[in-house]
Design brief:
The protein is α/β, with parallel strands linked by helices and 399 residues long. It folds into 2 domains: 4-246, Rossmann fold (3-Layer(aba) Sandwich); 252-368, no CATH class. The chain is built from 12 helices and 12 strands. It has helices at residues 54-64, 78-94, 125-134, 155-170, 181-187, 192-206, 252-259, 263-266, 284-296, 309-314, 320-336, 339-377; strands spanning 11-20, 25-31, 34-40, 68-70, 76-77, 103-104, 107-108, 117-120, 140-144, 173-179, 211-215, 242-246. It has a 10-stranded mixed beta sheet with strand order 6-4-1-2-3-10-9-8-11-12. A two-stranded parallel sheet has the order 5-7. The protein is globular, with a radius of gyration of 22 Å.
Length: 399
């Protein structure tokens, strides 16, 4: 890898340590002055590896145009070191504001490998679908605490209890990982929508499984730049861990249809935007899932049913992501002859398209000065981020 002697400044990863406590083992490091930690269960064989800290450091380096350096005498995966620039090239193809940031580190091919097959598992549609298809191979499921704000008192503990009950019923082990990396990323104004896939992949390789499964968020027909992506996630593989981004071959509705075949899978789904441990039945994720189950003629024990015109009308379509899910629901309505539900979703979709087209028209009409003014007074935090999945700047500026 490159020498640090050629650079005046670097993003340093240093003081990497693994400390066993009574209830967990904590892998931590100082990254560019911030202490980042990950807490793993005691039953896992964890080593002091540097790769787990590289995702945030890499994006920080790409924003500032300076290299990342592993200062400790800890070697990273030789295979990952050789795909590190390819990871960045993909991110740069989505957001040309980025600058390729070299990695300065020792490398090795000598890592232990377990026979574990670990799958990310939140209880949502995507992860439940992946678990269902790989159930005969999966030995562990992973739940991380950085995907929700956990504002409700006891919500993380309840989520863990729910996932533990599922793991016990399936006779597999649950791995829970707590971390402060999202807090550090938010503090640095690095969009979690960009970071999350690389963070999860890096957590996966720190556990040394043979295979690490990352359920897809979107199908091939709805793919777009996103922090977890079938082109991105597998690039984090190492000599001892293969990373599989799974599920792009089917739509969200097709995943729901598969899950609905087995009530034990259906009755544990956790899909809510508003709650981390229950399903409110009112947010867009709850509603679109409940509407899909209504069309399929299925019921979930922990998700309120969608039975009224008011509920169909409440399913908000706010962006291209949610509009793609609405289109999938319309197709499902056509397949099952649900004309009334189809009518309401099509009305919502039409309203969204009109608003989106109007917004784009006035944005184009205003030109760059108008767009800068809109961003200045916008409440959207996305405009204020230093790093996002795609460019959010009008003018190209060196930071």
């Amino acid at each position: 890898m490159q020498s640090a002697m050629n650079y005046d400044k670097t993003i340093d990863i240093e003081d990497i340590s693994l400390i066993r406590h009574d209830a967990c083992q904590e892998l931590s490091a100082t990254v560019d002055g911030d202490r980042i930690w990950f807490r793993f269960p005691l039953f896992l064989d964890i080593e002091p590896r540097a790769e787990i800290f590289m995702s945030l450091a890499m994006v920080e380096g790409m924003v500032r145009g300076i290299p990342v350096r592993i200062k400790d005498d800890i070697a990273i995966s030789n295979r990952l070191a050789h795909t590190y620039e390819e990871i960045q090239a993909l991110l740069k193809s989505w957001n040309d504001d980025f600058v390729i940031s070299p990695i300065i580190a020792k490398t090795t091919k000598d890592f232990p490998q377990s026979q574990n097959v670990i799958s990310c598992f939140s209880g949502g549609i995507d992860s439940t679908y992946t678990y269902g298809l790989y159930r005969d191979d999966i030995t562990h499921i992973l739940l991380m605490d950085c995907f929700d704000d956990w504002n409700e008192e006891g919500s993380w503990e309840q989520n863990v209890a729910n996932r533990q009950a599922f793991a016990d019923a399936q006779d597999i082990k649950l791995i829970t990982v707590e971390t402060n990396i999202r807090y550090i990323g938010n503090k640095r104004k690095l969009d979690f929508g960009l970071l999350h896939g690389s963070i999860v992949a890096a957590v996966g390789i720190a556990m040394n499984p043979k295979i690490f499964l990352m359920p897809s968020s979107f199908s091939y027909t709805t793919l777009h730049p996103w922090g977890s992506h079938p082109l991105l996630d597998p690039l984090w593989r190492t000599e001892n861990t293969e990373i599989i981004h799974h599920g792009c071959g089917v739509s969200r509705c097709e995943k729901t249809k598969y899950i609905a075949q087995e009530q034990k899978f259906l009755d544990q789904i956790q899909v809510c935007w508003e709650s981390s441990s229950t399903n409110c039945g009112k947010c867009s994720k709850c509603l679109r899932t409940a509407i899909a189950l209504k069309i399929l003629g299925k019921k979930c024990a922990i998700l309120p049913e969608a039975n009224s015109k008011e509920q169909y009308s409440m399913m908000a379509i706010e962006d291209d992501n949610t509009s793609s899910f609405a289109i999938e629901l319309i197709d499902l309505c056509k397949e099952y002859g649900e004309v009334e539900i189809q009518k309401y979703i099509e009305k919502n979709l039409k309203t969204y398209k009109i608003k989106s087209a109007t917004h784009d028209f006035f944005k184009a009409l205003a030109g760059n000065p108008g767009r800068r003014l809109i961003r200045r007074f916008s409440n959207s935090s996305w405009y204020k981020e230093r790093a996002t999945v795609t460019s959010n700047k009008v003018d190209k500026k060196v930071r």
